[in-house]
Amino acid sequence: DIQMTQSPSSLSASVGDRVTITCQASQDISNYLNWYQQKPGKAPKLLIYDASNLETGVPSRFSGSGSGTDFTFTISSLQPEDIATYYCQQYDNLPTWTFGQGTKVEIK
Amino acid sequence: QVQLVQSGAEVKKPGASVKVSCKTSGYTFIRYAITWVRQAPGQGLEWMGWISAYNGQTNYAQKFQGRVTMTTDTSTSTVYMELRSLRSDDTAVYYCARVEDPSYFDYWGQGTLVTVSS
After folding, report:
1. Backbone phi, then psi, for B44, in 5-degree steps?
2. Chain A: residue whose CA lies nearest to B113
3. Is the confidence at residue A92, as pLDDT, over 90?
4. Three-state SS string across A59-84, please?
5. Which residues contact A6 (CB under 8 A, 6 or more apart)?
6. Between B50, B103, B109, which is nearest A43 by CB?
7. 8 A C-beta contact, residue A45 and residue A72
8. Between A and B, how many CB-CB pairs are < 8 A?
């Protein structure tokens, strides 16, 4: 099974800061990676699919990059409404998916 | 608009079964698969399985094989997830989500809290 290692597990940043989260796969997964945002008490929301494609309606301050085993999720300018937990998700062997452990983003 | 509406919270005793429903609307039911994801209190997301609404084909995470069954009712555009032999560590919020072909979860239900306690 493919394992996803997401880091950091939590971070604290100031409004306007650039925030970066990484996700590493245990083997090559091409660009088969999605990113989700989950706010407390809510269902997850898709932000990025296929490693770098922004879901319709998602603000452009969110972006994703990477391929193979190493992926990056970036918030270019952190906003108060971005406080949430972010998860990567791989889908190298459909129909099977695996989530990363999550990164909790807080405001400093 | 696309909606996935799940059944209400459940409290079950260890060893019992639970069946959670996910009623869909706003799209052609058989054109999309549905997946189930759970989240234990304070924990991350855990993928449980997938069902094709077109032909009922399923694929379950190895951890749940033998204990979970996912089914569809095309007459009501509803998907069901039954989990058997419940344990206390099955206490979680269970989510259904629509699978945008082939690979991402674009619409989610509101979640169903299942509490397993003696």
Report:
1. -85, -175
2. A41
3. no
4. CCCEEEEEECCEEEEEECCCCHHHCE
5. A21, A22, A23, A24, A87, A88, A100, A101, A102, A103
6. B109
7. no
8. 65
Calculate how close chain B gets to A101, using CA atoms only, in Å.
6
Return the closest-CA partner of residue B90 out of B55, B110, B118.
B118
* C-alpha–C-alpha distance, residues B85 and B18, integer Å: 9
Q: Report the C-alpha gap between B94 and B98 in whole angstroms.
A: 14
The encoded tokens of residue A74 equal 């970036």
Chain B nearest CA to A9, separation (Å): 11
Single-letter amino acid code for the residue at A28: D
For A46-61, write each residue's pLDDT tens digit. 999 999 999 999 999 9
Tokens of residue A20, six digits? 């970066």
Q: Residues B72-94: pLDDT tens digits?
A: 999 999 999 999 999 999 999 99
DSSP letter for each residue of A9-37 = SEEEE-TT--EEEEEEESS--TT-EEEEE
Chain B residues closer than 8 Å to A43 by CB: 95, 97, 108-111
Distance CA B51, CA B57 (A): 6
Per-residue pLDDT tens over the stretch B15-24: 999 999 999 9
| Rg for chain B, CA atoms, rounded | 13
**What is the pLDDT confidence band of residue B102, given thresholds at 50, 70 and 90?**
confident
